[in-house]
Amino acid sequence: FTSQEAGDVKITEIVSHKTEAKCLAGAALKEILAGPPFFIKASAACSCNARARKMDEWGCDECERREDEIVGWLREEAAKRKLPFIDAAGRALVRLAVRRARKKANQ
Asked: DSSP state, 35?
Protein backbone atom coordinates (compact mmCIF):
# COMPACT_ATOMS: atom_id res chain seq x y z
CA PHE A 1 0.00 0.00 0.00
CA THR A 2 1.08 3.54 -0.63
CA SER A 3 -0.61 6.64 0.77
CA GLN A 4 -0.60 10.31 -0.18
CA GLU A 5 -2.21 13.32 1.43
CA ALA A 6 -4.09 15.48 -1.09
CA GLY A 7 -5.57 18.39 0.82
CA ASP A 8 -8.29 16.93 3.03
CA VAL A 9 -8.45 13.67 1.06
CA LYS A 10 -6.16 10.78 1.79
CA ILE A 11 -5.50 8.71 -1.30
CA THR A 12 -4.50 5.10 -0.77
CA GLU A 13 -3.68 2.76 -3.61
CA ILE A 14 -2.71 -0.83 -3.72
CA VAL A 15 0.54 -1.37 -5.55
CA SER A 16 0.90 -4.80 -7.08
CA HIS A 17 4.33 -6.16 -7.85
CA LYS A 18 4.18 -9.35 -9.84
CA THR A 19 7.33 -11.32 -9.27
CA GLU A 20 8.58 -13.01 -12.36
CA ALA A 21 9.18 -16.72 -11.84
CA LYS A 22 12.72 -17.84 -12.53
CA CYS A 23 13.18 -19.46 -15.91
CA LEU A 24 15.16 -22.63 -15.09
CA ALA A 25 16.50 -23.80 -18.45
CA GLY A 26 19.33 -25.81 -16.83
CA ALA A 27 16.89 -27.83 -14.75
CA ALA A 28 14.73 -28.36 -17.83
CA LEU A 29 17.72 -29.57 -19.89
CA LYS A 30 18.74 -32.00 -17.14
CA GLU A 31 15.19 -33.34 -17.03
CA ILE A 32 15.11 -33.85 -20.81
CA LEU A 33 18.46 -35.64 -20.85
CA ALA A 34 17.57 -37.87 -17.87
CA GLY A 35 14.38 -39.15 -19.49
CA PRO A 36 13.63 -41.22 -22.57
CA PRO A 37 15.15 -41.67 -25.07
CA PHE A 38 18.46 -40.45 -23.58
CA PHE A 39 18.57 -41.65 -19.95
CA ILE A 40 21.73 -39.56 -19.40
CA LYS A 41 22.24 -38.43 -15.81
CA ALA A 42 24.89 -36.33 -14.13
CA SER A 43 27.77 -38.29 -12.64
CA ALA A 44 30.17 -37.30 -9.89
CA ALA A 45 32.89 -36.81 -12.48
CA CYS A 46 31.03 -34.39 -14.77
CA SER A 47 30.35 -30.67 -14.49
CA CYS A 48 26.71 -31.17 -15.53
CA ASN A 49 25.11 -30.02 -12.27
CA ALA A 50 27.31 -26.92 -12.03
CA ARG A 51 26.54 -26.00 -15.63
CA ALA A 52 22.81 -26.57 -15.13
CA ARG A 53 22.93 -24.26 -12.10
CA LYS A 54 24.78 -21.66 -14.18
CA MET A 55 22.07 -21.86 -16.86
CA ASP A 56 19.40 -21.46 -14.17
CA GLU A 57 21.22 -18.37 -12.84
CA TRP A 58 21.44 -16.90 -16.35
CA GLY A 59 17.76 -17.40 -17.08
CA CYS A 60 16.24 -18.24 -20.45
CA ASP A 61 17.15 -15.07 -22.35
CA GLU A 62 20.84 -15.43 -21.54
CA CYS A 63 20.75 -19.16 -22.34
CA GLU A 64 19.40 -18.28 -25.79
CA ARG A 65 22.24 -15.81 -26.28
CA ARG A 66 24.77 -18.41 -25.13
CA GLU A 67 23.32 -21.31 -27.11
CA ASP A 68 26.64 -22.01 -28.85
CA GLU A 69 28.44 -22.20 -25.51
CA ILE A 70 25.84 -24.59 -24.07
CA VAL A 71 25.93 -26.79 -27.18
CA GLY A 72 29.72 -26.86 -26.74
CA TRP A 73 29.24 -28.14 -23.19
CA LEU A 74 26.93 -30.89 -24.46
CA ARG A 75 29.44 -31.83 -27.20
CA GLU A 76 32.28 -31.93 -24.67
CA GLU A 77 30.36 -34.15 -22.25
CA ALA A 78 29.23 -36.47 -25.07
CA ALA A 79 32.88 -36.91 -26.11
CA LYS A 80 33.90 -37.73 -22.51
CA ARG A 81 31.16 -40.37 -22.38
CA LYS A 82 32.02 -41.64 -25.88
CA LEU A 83 28.52 -40.82 -27.11
CA PRO A 84 27.67 -39.62 -30.61
CA PHE A 85 26.80 -35.93 -30.88
CA ILE A 86 25.18 -33.83 -33.60
CA ASP A 87 25.27 -30.05 -33.12
CA ALA A 88 21.82 -29.55 -34.66
CA ALA A 89 20.36 -32.01 -32.16
CA GLY A 90 22.16 -30.23 -29.31
CA ARG A 91 20.69 -26.89 -30.43
CA ALA A 92 17.24 -28.45 -30.60
CA LEU A 93 17.63 -29.76 -27.03
CA VAL A 94 18.72 -26.36 -25.71
CA ARG A 95 15.80 -24.65 -27.45
CA LEU A 96 13.36 -27.25 -26.14
CA ALA A 97 14.71 -26.77 -22.61
CA VAL A 98 14.25 -22.99 -22.87
CA ARG A 99 10.67 -23.40 -24.17
CA ARG A 100 9.76 -25.82 -21.38
CA ALA A 101 11.38 -23.62 -18.71
CA ARG A 102 9.49 -20.55 -19.96
CA LYS A 103 6.23 -22.47 -20.01
CA LYS A 104 6.78 -23.70 -16.46
CA ALA A 105 7.78 -20.22 -15.24
CA ASN A 106 4.60 -18.73 -16.69
CA GLN A 107 2.19 -21.24 -15.15
From this structure: S
